[in-house]
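Minutes, structural biology subgroup

Action item carried over from last meeting: produce the structure token record for Protein kinase domain protein (Ichthyophthirius multifiliis). EB confirmed the sequence was re-checked against the source entry. Recorded below for completeness.
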Amino acid sequence: MSSKYTENNIPDSSYAKDSYISSKSNNKLIKNKNPYDDYQKLASIGQGAYGQVMLIKRRKDGNLFAMKVVRKEKVCKNEKIIEATLLEKKILMKSKHPFIVKMYKSFQTESKLYIIMEYMPYGDLYSVLQKAKKFDENTARFIFAEVVLGIQYLHEVQKSMYRDLKPENILIEESGHIKLSDFGLAKEFINKEDKENSFLGTPQYLAPEIVLQYPYDKNIDLWTLGILLYELLCGKPPFGVGGQKTLYREIAMNKPKFPDFFSQNAEDLIKQLLQSIPNKRLGSEGFEQLKMHAFFEKIDWEIIYTKQVESPLKQYLSLKKIEKEIREQSIHESPKNTLNKSHSRQQLYGIFPNFTYNPGSLILEN
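Output recorded by EB:
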């Protein structure tokens, strides 16, 4: 789901009208105060196929959060989409990592799922890259190092492949550091040899094995790391001129052209990531292998992880923060959302029995 700011399509007031579900007893839904009432919605900051992300303000203190709202009927049409929705919530709930967006709370009403996350005031990396055209190598290396640590955490701790790494899913916090977001396409794996067959992802970032419809594993994320680094340095992905057939042919042939301004180390790293054979990609034997590449010679990984150094990305963040562009708007009543007759309220609730997550009061870090 994209996090780009739009002033249009403010969510309708029926979000707050659904009854909050806290538990189920004797097959009857118990209705309590809706946690949504604690927040004021300000604007839509992202739109996707199954819902949207809203900027919200907590009424008692004015703190800002991002809230992902997913319509149950949209996701209940497909078992894999249900699985992906639950996995995204699981990843966010379990994640304790500096480069993964934080989740504070989740709850559900009779027809919708809500996830409250930290708000990232500078939006997504794609928007910043569009304005900057391209990043200098020092900035690109810094961003890329933080992304590498985030992907390493997903693979080694969460045992999940990302499958949707792209600048639109990399958010920027107040300090200029980045965080990975939107895990709707993530997939768990039990063993590193586990394979997937689903044809999904963003076309310009698809690995050859997906384009050729071969079974694939977590090494697809190494390919997209190579695409990302190229884009950070060049302003655009290495493949993508022409239509979709041309794009897929370019990916399968795998002959990216490197501009003269790419350093030797940058070009070599990208080439080692953009290997057509998945287990030949740098990092396929472990991320320490990738982190030892000469491109990262000046990187102290412990300092990167603990954010002890100022992000060079800040020099590109002169644009106004999103909330400064938002004028609070009155919320107009819209027709109440209706449930499909094929799903009763109890059925929709039963599909997501353990979705609610509330570890206590939302505590914001300085």
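Discussion: The CA atoms of residues 6 and 347 lie 34 Å apart.
Next step: EB to file the record with the rest of the batch.
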